[in-house]
Write a structure and sequence with these properties.
Length: 380
């Protein structure tokens, strides 16, 4: 709901800045609430996720500002897949390998906003990766709504994609943006551990450390299964970066449930926590569930987990002080320093050197600052 509010505020800001500008809105919010967006002053075009490719055509068809035109916002139309990659920095690209989701978790609107799970063939995505390599970028982050579910459209498997991408010349690093614990197989873990290109960096959604709440959420695993998957990663990659998503304040979450979640996470000792207070989304089963948690309580619980996250992340980064690692430096320059990441996602800073941007350097890791950045001494 915060993203929806930000979108509405941005539309109004753009319209105030230039009342004559054509404003088109697309994405999940447009797919789910097209008429709500169409009613906002200044909006001319509302495009569903299946119609993004026709944006230019729709602008040309516009007869003038006035009543907003709404296109392709029927959920049943969500069947296409658009190959897309975007550049976050000169060094890194984000390659969408999968879209949609067949899971229907109790709190989530993704299935309704993005449709069922689908993907392009492995060969086409390899071609996209080669285009990224030709542009000079060294790292690709594989993105999707449910990346591990890759293959629904083509009958291929996610591991097939990983193996094919591993052979693309010019790309030196891959990261998997997020993968459901029930889809993080031993085969995938073993492949990432053995590959010099796939980084020891895993983003795995948990959502709750209480089995009772996981059941209410309609998640597809238990805490025991989740812990077993983390142990499987660490058995082959002891110093892997593990980031975990968690929701606080889900309907029915008692103080005991929250404490169970807190203790479970503290025991797992991940490198980072992505914490979200529960947000009601119209049309989802969670809206009708009893046991609503007050917003102030959810905020307090989130703050407790934020404090735990700071402690865990500091400990993870501090363990590397005095060691050597490989860092891919980015073009960001701040306070005379440049920044980059190790394979397991520790952030490193060093005096800015333009010649080192978009290169992988051996670096000795020194003192950690208050932001958990490590000072780097380039050794090659």
């Amino acid at each position: 709901e915060h993203a929806d509010k930000k979108c509405r505020n941005l539309i109004r800001k753009l319209h105030r800045r230039n009342p004559d500008a054509i404003i088109a809105v697309t994405g999940c919010y447009a797919q789910l609430r097209p008429q709500e967006i169409a009613a906002i002053e200044g909006v001319d075009i509302v495009l569903g996720n299946n119609d993004k490719g026709d944006l230019y055509k729709r602008v040309l068809e516009l007869s003038g500002k006035g009543c907003a035109q709404v296109y392709s916002c029927d959920a049943d139309s969500l069947t296409s897949f658009f190959a897309a990659f975007s550049s976050g920095d000169r060094t890194r690209a984000f390659l969408k390998v999968q879209d949609g989701c067949d899971y229907k978790c109790a709190y989530c609107t993704i299935h309704y906003a993005r449709g069922g799970s689908r993907n392009m063939p492995v060969a086409d995505l390899v071609a996209e990766a080669r285009r990224i390599a030709a542009a000079g970028q060294k790292e690709i982050v594989l993105t999707g709504v449910n990346t591990g579910d890759f293959g629904r459209t083509t009958g291929e498997k996610f591991i097939d994609l990983l193996r094919a991408l591993d052979g693309v010349d010019g790309i030196e690093r891959y990261r998997i943006s997020s993968i459901e614990p029930n889809l993080l197989t031993d085969e995938i873990i073993a492949f990432c551990a053995a590959s010099p290109k796939f980084q020891h960096h895993f983003h795995i959604p948990l959502q709750s450390g209480s089995d009772k709440i996981l059941g209410l959420m309609r998640r597809r695993y238990t805490t025991a299964r989740f812990a077993e998957r983390i142990a499987a990663v660490r058995a082959l990659m002891p110093d892997a970066f593990i980031g975990i998503d968690v929701i606080v304040g889900f309907p029915g979450e008692t103080e005991e449930d929250f404490r169970t979640t807190y203790d479970f996470l503290a025991g797992l000792e991940p490198a980072f926590l992505h914490i979200f207070p529960f947000s009601e989304r119209p049309g989802t089963p969670a809206v009708e569930m009893p046991g609503k948690v007050q917003a102030s309580v959810a905020t307090r619980r989130a703050a407790q987990l934020e404090a735990l996250c700071a402690k865990l992340h500091a400990a993870f980064c501090a363990r590397a002080v005095g060691s050597e690692d490989s860092v891919l430096f980015e073009s960001t320059r701040r306070g005379g320093m440049m920044f980059g990441f190790t394979g397991n996602y520790r952030r490193v800073k060093a005096p800015y050197d333009k010649a080192r941007v978009n290169t992988i350097c051996r670096v000795r890791l020194g003192a950690m600052d208050e932001s958990h950045d490590l000072m780097g001494e380039i050794r090659d």
